[in-house]
Specification:
heterodimer; A: alpha/beta; Rossmann fold; Alpha-Beta Plaits; 2 domains; 6-stranded mixed beta sheet; B: mainly alpha; 12 helices; 78% helix
Chain lengths: 354, 257
């Protein structure tokens, strides 16, 4: 179990992680989702005690990382597959990690077997492809047979076979009752592997929910209509009090998934329909809207649409701390310093930076 | 986490990279070979030396003449042992495995120091015996002559301490290129200039290599006015090493990996 409480990290002016609170529980794959630069890797580095938090606390099975005797036997992590000395063989790389944590040397052979690198165990790591490096990193994470596993973007740059293998591995690790915490910036990837979702944007928690719940909440459906009698249908819909959006190309869209109502309405008014179909947004769209909303959230002291997630972090002040950098990052809007009524034009620095 | 585990791990690390072998062998070969060459040249030149120079001719120190270049390879060894962790990103893997940074640094430095000491001592003795052989029966000295054994052991210690000092600096600077760019010119040029120009001599003589190399002299230099003896000089060098390691530890503890 990983418990994160009020975790913050500031790099100079930038608040990379902002008051994160969530718990990663055993027996499930928890997806850690956010656009690039949202603070996922920073959070993971703080979990491992590599970066010192500016505020807040991380505990692994109730203890701080540096208090763990032989930490690799509690939590195994793959942060950066290329973070190995290229001149060292795969075997020796794993051996020095094993020795530092009192793990028997035979485990090295076992994990190499698990990840399928036995044949290249004595080859230098610098000759490894990204996929092989990724496997070596995973071997290092599995070395101590830990109860908690953490992977940062493990499928990045992998071929389909490698991706398939990693998905299966994560699911089987969770099925063994382990805690699996995996980050990604791809919603579609998470939908395939994760049971639980933690979504962050600009270092803040946006959602902490089960995958099923997330899908249910976010699968927006609408009815798409195509008709040659556009004006008459619009009138009819308007009279019936049904909100309609023009989607361009002569298409009309009505929120909600009830085509019957519109079909019957059209029949009553003798409007010809060329298309009447139910559409569903993808999870990727839902994710985009969620993270886009995180930007919007800065902009309004009283955000609308509070439906996201369990732990929305209440902010005492509107927007982030004094946007000193704002005039340079958003030269078009020098407003933040002069018009305090719109304090948060600054966060137009997009969530996808970095 | 027992300290022995981390030491064993660091031993695996150091023995499994090629740079360890080539830096240390280069240090040994250069020190010994250059010492032999200069010893042979000194033998030929001895006849043309003035009486003062003959009186202060120090056969032990002459055989260590290769140290000025050999120490540069020792510096590379010390720098690479540490900064390889940073340049490859291995440091994050290492500190995740050993989160107690003091234990991590102590084990790494202990293992590298031990190895440097073995190589330094072997090099010191080899440079001495081979250098004496080149000087020939008229000029050479023996290990049982007063002060000679101290100077030879001191030569090994000097090489070791130069490597450890470089480790401390590399922990502070992290980048191998930056560390080498600071240390190499400093020990090869700057320190010698500072210690030999009369205006800066008073300060220059306290620099780590200038103070530390005093131990390799059996006879003091002509007009030597250094306020410390051989062990005093080595003591000053040890203080520099401690300062470099302390600075490195303080930064390593505080910094994000």
């Amino acid at each position: 179990m990983i418990e994160i409480a009020g975790l913050s990290k500031r790099y100079g002016e930038k608040l990379a992680v902002d008051g994160l609170t969530f718990t990663v529980r055993p027996g499930t794959v928890t997806g850690f989702l956010g656009p690039n630069g949202a603070g996922k890797s920073t959070t993971m580095r703080m979990i491992l005690g590599l970066d010192h938090p500016t505020g807040g606390d991380v505990r692994i099975d109730g203890r701080h990382y540096h208090e763990l005797a032989d930490p690799l036997t509690y939590i195994g992590a793959l942060l950066d597959a290329k973070a190995v000395h290229g001149g060292r063989s795969a075997r020796n790389h794993l051996l020095c990690l094993a020795q530092s944590n009192g793990i028997p040397a035979r485990r090295v052979g076992e994990v190499l077997e698990t990840v399928g690198l036995t044949a290249v165990a004595r080859k230098k790591a610098k000759g490894f492809s990204l996929g092989m490096s990724q496997r070596l990193g995973i071997a290092g994470a599995l070395l101590g047979d830990p109860r908690i596993l953490m992977f940062d973007e493990p499928v990045n740059g992998l071929d389909p076979e490698g991706i398939h293998w990693i998905r299966g591995l994560m699911k089987s690790l969770a099925a063994q009752g382990r805690t699996v915490f995996v980050s990604s910036h791809l919603m579609s990837e998470m939908a395939l592997t994760a049971d639980h979702l933690v979504v962050i944007g600009q270092g803040r928690l946006l959602a902490d929910t089960t995958m099923a719940d997330f899908i249910e909440r976010n699968s927006r459906s609408w009815v798409r209509i195509r008709t040659p009698d556009r004006e008459r249908l619009l009138d009819a819909l308007h009279t019936a009090g049904i909100a309609v959006v023009e989607a361009g190309d002569g298409l009309l869209e009505v929120d909600g998934g009830r085509p019957e109502r519109i079909g019957e309405l059209a029949a009553r008014h003798q409007v010809v329909l060329h298309e009447l179909s139910v559409r569903q947004s993808s999870l990727e769209d839902a994710f985009m809207r969620l993270t886009a909303q995180s930007v919007e959230y800065h902009a309004r002291p009283e955000p609308a649409g509070q439906s996201w997630g369990a732990h929305r972090i209440a902010r005492t002040a509107a927007g982030p701390p004094a946007p000193k950098a704002a005039p340079t990052t958003t030269p078009a809007t020098p407003a933040p310093l002069t018009t305090p009524t719109t304090p948060a034009t600054a966060p137009t620095t997009t969530p996808t930076e970095g | 986490m027992a300290a022995t585990q981390v030491v064993r791990s660091e031993w695996t690390k150091i023995r499994s990279v090629a740079s360890t072998v080539w830096t240390l062998s280069l240090a040994a070969v250069v020190t010994i070979a250059l010492g032999m060459l200069i010893s042979a040249l000194s033998k030929n030149e001895f006849g043309s030396m003035g009486p003062r120079e003959r009186l202060s001719f120090d056969p032990t120190f002459v055989s260590f003449a290769g140290m000025t270049l050999g120490q540069l390879a020792m510096i590379v060894f010390g720098v690479l042992v540490v900064s390889n962790e940073y340049s490859t990103g291995m440091i994050r893997t290492s500190l995740a495995a050993v989160p107690r940074r003091g234990a991590f640094l102590a084990s790494k430095v202990a293992v590298a120091t031990g190895l440097a000491l073995v190589v330094g001592m072997a090099t010191g003795f080899a440079a001495f015996f081979l250098g004496q052989a080149m000087l020939g029966p008229q000029l050479r000295t023996t290990l049982d002559a007063p002060g000679v054994l101290r100077a030879v052991v001191g030569g090994g210690l000097y090489m070791t301490l130069i490597a450890v000092f470089s480790m401390g600096v590399a922990v502070m600077l992290r980048s191998p290129m930056l560390s080498l760019g600071v240390l190499m010119p400093f020990f090869f040029l700057v320190s010698n200039i500072l210690a030999n120009v009369s205006a800066t001599r008073k300060v220059g003589q306290y620099l780590p290599d200038q103070a530390g190399s005093r131990i390799m002299r059996v006879l003091p230099r002509v007009g030597d006015d250094t306020p410390y003896g051989p062990w005093g000089g080595l003591g000053i060098m040890v203080l520099w090493v401690i300062a470099a390691l302390a600075g490195g530890y303080a930064l390593l503890r505080r910094r994000d990996a």
